[in-house]
Predict the structure.
Amino acid sequence: MRLPLPARSATAVSLAVMLCLGVSAGPVLADDQPPTTTPTVSAPAETTTPDVPVPSTATPPAPTSSEPTTTEPVPSPAPQAQEAVDLRLRVWFEKSVYPVHEPITAHASVTNVGTASAHQVMVSSTGNVWPLEWRPLDPGSGGVTIDPGQTAEASATGTVQEDFSTVHLAVTVWTTEGEPDANPDDNSVSATVPLEIRYGSYRGTVYGDRDADHVIDPGEGLPGVDVTLSGGVPGTVRYARADESGRFELTDLPFGSYYLTFSSYPGWVLLADSFVLNEPDHPAGVFRAMPQVSGNLTATLAFAEKSYPLGSTARAVLTLENTGPVPLTDLTAACEMDFGYGTVEADVGELRDPGVTLPVGVTRQYDVTLPVSDVAVSWGYVRLTCLVGAPPRVNDLRLEALVSVPGGVAPMVTGLLLKSRLAALGLPPGTPVPNVKVYLRNRLTGTIAARDITTAAGRFTFYDVPAGLYDFGLVGPWQLEGPLDFQVSAGENGSYTRWVVIKPGPEQPDPDAVPPSGGEVVPTPEGDLPVLAETGAAVAWLAFGGLFSVAVGCALVLCSPRRLRR
């Protein structure tokens, strides 16, 4: 009889439980009961072996002595101590008190009291003294190696930038190798030292040297000049005004470096000056005003020749005339030759420092020379710029002269003529302008070197143009907006297109008697002129002959018999 499925499952579970209990309890029960059967083992047959000694490998027999045996214990090796870095930092100052305006010098020593070498040891700091570079331990130098028991020292110097009562520094030593320090608490140190502010006074006189003797004479003081003094530590700005004798005085100024400036005075120029206040009563300053060059000096600059070839020395003449009421002293010149991308200093001869004196009503000439190089040939000219004064760039006149340097040629110069579209507002040029006659006029000689008429696309091309500086010309109701300088360099061969921007303006006349048809006008040799250009009569006869031929042809066509259709 087959049991139902639930009954079969219960039976299987019961059997599994009984099996597990039997397996677990079997060994326990077996220990309590003796074995039921004893296996019988048959002894092997006894054999005799020859009496031959065999070396024994077994453990020797225990001693027969009745005394006990003792075994000494083997000591285990002691643990080895691990090497470590231990850096100790110390910081000190040279003085117990520092004047606030003086440089501050601090020292640092780093000792390695550990058992391992420290690599790339560096020192850095923060505080109110700057800059501080702890050489040779500053980070910029890469640091040093400090072996056990060794010491490295460094020093740094800076100036106080803030908190002018006390210097405070936080200094730290560290390694870039990331080596752990056995005692990191002594790797940082705070150091302070008190500061003191010292004060002094300053006085001076401003005067105009009317007789050019470099000495203050009665009546030469410049009253009412405003004096501005800035500097000191802490930073200070003070003002004073010169009295009737040109004297001024400022008190309670903190020690330090000062910069001195003056207001203008009619007919005179006072140069800025500087001084260091480091004592309570500074020596008085004397400030000599220079006669103003503008309005008292007339100057011209011109080259001695119209042109200079390669390898020659160009010579320009600088003419100076004193038209003022006092002598002009300490006149010097700074002259440069400009090539558009760089300058070359010219030789100013007598007008070098310390300069010359030009008495009242006197006119003198001075030579300025410069070599003519291959760069000048490439540009086709030399532009000489001179600043003349006492001194130049402060109290001066600016002069300029041009001279031609022949030899360079540009095979082809191309460009695009564009109508202005508010270029001043940053907008790009507008549409091309066609059918406009354009030309190049040499700025030095005034001759026209090239001509063309712009194409429908506004393009123009000049051929075989001598290198030089030109003015770009237009014909018609137009006005040039830029560029004002049209520079043509030797070797230019249409490698880039120039933009010329124009705008509507007054009518510009045609510089040529006969407008060219395009490109540069090349005269045709006599004898090669066509017959049509010799006389108007020849043209009339040819026209009459053409009309007669047309009439005869028409008559022949009309009078010819018509072909009948078949």
User: Anything to note?
Assistant: The two ends are 130 Å apart (CA to CA). The chain has four domains: 87-196, 199-291, 297-404, 409-508. The longest strand covers residues 493-508.
